[in-house]
Amino acid sequence: MTHIKRFDHVGVTVRDLDRATDFFVSLGLEVQGRQPVEGEFIDTVIAIPDSRTEIVMLDSPGGGSSVELSSFVRPDAVDGSPDAMANVVGLRSLGFEVHDLRAAVDAVVADGYSLVGGIGEYEDVWRMAYVRGPEGILVSLAERIG
């Protein structure tokens, strides 16, 4: 018997909620809601007393799994390493399948973000690239080509 019913969402903590939201919306995610969260529930779940965060929920087109962006009002956010490479232990990247990889990468770069390495091809089936978004968020973009 499995305990998991379905994959629901990935949570990402950021300082600038608007900038991070704009980044994911530019990739094609859709904002489902934005709200502050505080009180006994969140204090219990995250084990940080008197916390307050604002969250934005984003869904991929057509539904499925979501991205939850969270920005702490209190306590202050604690910086991680925004330049962490793929071999750093922890959450490595958020992955999305895109329609046109080159167009998606060009749009991200035009918005001031960066391509981490280059665009690679895997066995004539996938074309993929890592891009670094706001606050160092690493995003894997992949296009099925075969």
What does this structure look like?
With 146 residues, this protein is an alpha+beta fold. The chain folds into 2 domains: 9-74, 2,3-Dihydroxybiphenyl 1,2-Dioxygenase, domain 1, CATH 3.10.180; 94-144, 2,3-Dihydroxybiphenyl 1,2-Dioxygenase, domain 1, CATH 3.10.180.10. 19% of the residues lie in helices and 37% in strands. The protein contains 3 helices and 9 strands. The protein has helices at 17-27, 40-46, 101-110, and strands at residues 9-13, 30-38, 52-59, 66-74, 94-97, 114-115, 120-122, 126-132, 138-144. The strands form 2 sheets. Strands 5, 6, 7, 8 and 9 form a 5-stranded mixed β-sheet that branches. It has a 4-stranded mixed β-sheet with strand order 1-4-3-2, sandwiched between helices. β8 and β9 (138-144) form a beta hairpin. The longest helix is centred in the first third of the chain and has 11 residues, at 17-27. The mean pLDDT is 92. InterPro entries: Glyas_Bleomycin-R_OHBP_Dase, MMCE/EMCE_epimerase, VOC_core. Keywords: Metal-binding. Residues 6-144 form the VOC domain.
What's a concise summary of this model?
Keywords: Metal-binding. The protein is of the alpha+beta class.
Structural class: alpha+beta
Report the total helices.
3
Shape descriptor reads: globular
Oligomer: single chain
CATH topology call of the largest domain: 2,3-Dihydroxybiphenyl 1,2-Dioxygenase, domain 1
**What is the CATH homology-level superfamily of the largest domain?**
2,3-Dihydroxybiphenyl 1,2-Dioxygenase, domain 1
Q: Write down the domain tally.
A: 2
Low-pLDDT segments, ≥5 res = none
Give the number of DSSP strands: 9
At the first level of CATH, the class of the largest domain is: Alpha Beta
Encode the helix/strand succession as letters.
EHEHEEEHEEEE
Major beta sheet summary = 5 strands, mixed
Q: What is the arithmetic mean of pLDDT?
A: 92
Q: Approximately what portion of the residues adopt beta-strand conformation? A: 35-45%
Protein name: VOC family protein
Keywords: Metal-binding
Domain VOC: 6-144
Pfam families: Glyoxalase_4 (PF13669)
